[in-house]
Design a protein that fits this description.
Length: 131
Protein backbone atom coordinates (compact mmCIF):
# COMPACT_ATOMS: atom_id res chain seq x y z
CA UNK A 1 0.00 0.00 0.00
CA UNK A 2 1.42 3.39 -0.91
CA UNK A 3 1.73 6.31 1.51
CA UNK A 4 -1.08 8.31 -0.14
CA UNK A 5 -3.51 5.41 0.19
CA UNK A 6 -2.49 4.88 3.81
CA UNK A 7 -2.99 8.59 4.60
CA UNK A 8 -6.44 8.45 2.99
CA UNK A 9 -7.41 5.50 5.14
CA UNK A 10 -6.14 7.21 8.30
CA UNK A 11 -8.07 10.38 7.44
CA UNK A 12 -11.26 8.36 6.84
CA UNK A 13 -10.77 6.50 10.14
CA UNK A 14 -10.21 9.71 12.13
CA UNK A 15 -13.16 11.39 10.41
CA UNK A 16 -15.53 8.52 11.20
CA UNK A 17 -14.33 8.25 14.82
CA UNK A 18 -14.76 12.00 15.28
CA UNK A 19 -18.29 11.96 13.81
CA UNK A 20 -19.32 9.03 16.02
CA UNK A 21 -17.95 10.82 19.10
CA UNK A 22 -19.37 14.26 18.23
CA UNK A 23 -22.94 13.12 17.60
CA UNK A 24 -22.92 10.76 20.58
CA UNK A 25 -22.03 13.74 22.79
CA UNK A 26 -24.57 15.96 21.03
CA UNK A 27 -27.36 13.42 21.57
CA UNK A 28 -26.46 12.37 25.13
CA UNK A 29 -24.37 15.09 26.81
CA UNK A 30 -24.53 18.27 24.72
CA UNK A 31 -22.72 20.39 27.30
CA UNK A 32 -19.66 18.10 26.88
CA UNK A 33 -19.21 19.35 23.31
CA UNK A 34 -17.30 22.30 24.77
CA UNK A 35 -14.27 19.98 25.09
CA UNK A 36 -14.08 19.60 21.29
CA UNK A 37 -13.65 23.33 20.63
CA UNK A 38 -11.01 25.92 21.57
CA UNK A 39 -11.05 29.71 22.00
CA UNK A 40 -10.16 30.16 18.30
CA UNK A 41 -12.97 27.86 17.07
CA UNK A 42 -15.67 29.29 14.82
CA UNK A 43 -19.18 27.89 14.32
CA UNK A 44 -21.59 29.08 11.64
CA UNK A 45 -24.99 27.75 12.67
CA UNK A 46 -27.73 28.45 10.15
CA UNK A 47 -25.86 31.60 9.08
CA UNK A 48 -25.12 32.86 12.63
CA UNK A 49 -21.41 33.08 13.46
CA UNK A 50 -20.29 32.12 16.97
CA UNK A 51 -16.67 32.22 18.13
CA UNK A 52 -14.96 30.42 20.99
CA UNK A 53 -15.61 27.16 22.82
CA UNK A 54 -17.73 28.71 25.58
CA UNK A 55 -20.05 30.67 23.27
CA UNK A 56 -20.38 27.73 20.87
CA UNK A 57 -21.30 25.40 23.73
CA UNK A 58 -23.83 27.89 25.11
CA UNK A 59 -25.46 28.26 21.69
CA UNK A 60 -25.74 24.49 21.18
CA UNK A 61 -27.13 23.99 24.69
CA UNK A 62 -29.77 26.70 24.07
CA UNK A 63 -31.34 24.89 21.11
CA UNK A 64 -35.13 24.58 21.58
CA UNK A 65 -35.05 20.82 22.24
CA UNK A 66 -33.49 18.74 24.99
CA UNK A 67 -33.43 15.38 23.29
CA UNK A 68 -32.56 14.40 19.74
CA UNK A 69 -31.02 11.61 17.73
CA UNK A 70 -28.74 12.04 14.74
CA UNK A 71 -28.62 9.36 12.07
CA UNK A 72 -25.68 9.80 9.73
CA UNK A 73 -26.07 9.11 6.01
CA UNK A 74 -22.64 10.08 4.67
CA UNK A 75 -19.20 11.03 5.98
CA UNK A 76 -16.60 12.42 3.59
CA UNK A 77 -13.12 13.20 4.91
CA UNK A 78 -10.10 14.81 3.26
CA UNK A 79 -6.67 15.79 4.52
CA UNK A 80 -6.35 19.54 4.89
CA UNK A 81 -3.14 21.13 3.62
CA UNK A 82 -3.14 23.37 6.69
CA UNK A 83 -0.96 21.87 9.44
CA UNK A 84 -2.18 18.28 9.22
CA UNK A 85 -5.86 19.06 9.66
CA UNK A 86 -8.82 17.10 8.36
CA UNK A 87 -11.97 18.30 6.62
CA UNK A 88 -15.08 16.26 7.44
CA UNK A 89 -18.42 16.71 5.66
CA UNK A 90 -21.48 14.99 7.15
CA UNK A 91 -25.04 14.59 5.94
CA UNK A 92 -27.86 12.95 7.81
CA UNK A 93 -31.13 13.27 9.65
CA UNK A 94 -31.97 14.85 12.96
CA UNK A 95 -34.84 13.14 14.79
CA UNK A 96 -36.69 15.24 17.37
CA UNK A 97 -39.24 13.89 19.89
CA UNK A 98 -42.81 14.46 18.75
CA UNK A 99 -41.81 15.25 15.17
CA UNK A 100 -43.14 12.89 12.52
CA UNK A 101 -40.46 13.65 9.94
CA UNK A 102 -36.72 13.96 10.59
CA UNK A 103 -34.89 17.16 9.66
CA UNK A 104 -32.18 16.74 7.03
CA UNK A 105 -28.89 18.44 7.78
CA UNK A 106 -25.37 18.95 6.50
CA UNK A 107 -22.38 19.80 8.65
CA UNK A 108 -18.75 20.50 7.84
CA UNK A 109 -15.90 20.32 10.34
CA UNK A 110 -12.30 21.42 9.96
CA UNK A 111 -10.36 19.43 12.55
CA UNK A 112 -7.01 20.90 13.57
CA UNK A 113 -4.33 18.87 15.35
CA UNK A 114 -3.40 19.60 18.95
CA UNK A 115 0.08 19.41 20.50
CA UNK A 116 -1.10 16.29 22.38
CA UNK A 117 -1.76 14.40 19.13
CA UNK A 118 -5.54 14.65 19.02
CA UNK A 119 -7.81 17.08 17.15
CA UNK A 120 -10.14 19.96 17.96
CA UNK A 121 -12.86 21.61 15.87
CA UNK A 122 -11.38 24.77 14.34
CA UNK A 123 -14.32 25.40 12.01
CA UNK A 124 -17.88 24.05 12.09
CA UNK A 125 -20.65 24.92 9.61
CA UNK A 126 -24.18 23.56 10.16
CA UNK A 127 -27.21 23.88 7.87
CA UNK A 128 -30.63 22.29 7.78
CA UNK A 129 -31.52 21.10 4.28
CA UNK A 130 -35.02 22.21 3.38
CA UNK A 131 -37.05 20.91 0.46
Amino acid sequence: MDAENELGQQVEMVGRAFVDHYYHLFDHSRSSLVTLYQPSSLLTFEGQKIEGATDISERLCQLPFDQCKHSISTIDSQPSPIAGGILVFVSGNLHLPGEEHPLRFSQMFHLAPTMQGSFFVQNDIFRLNYG
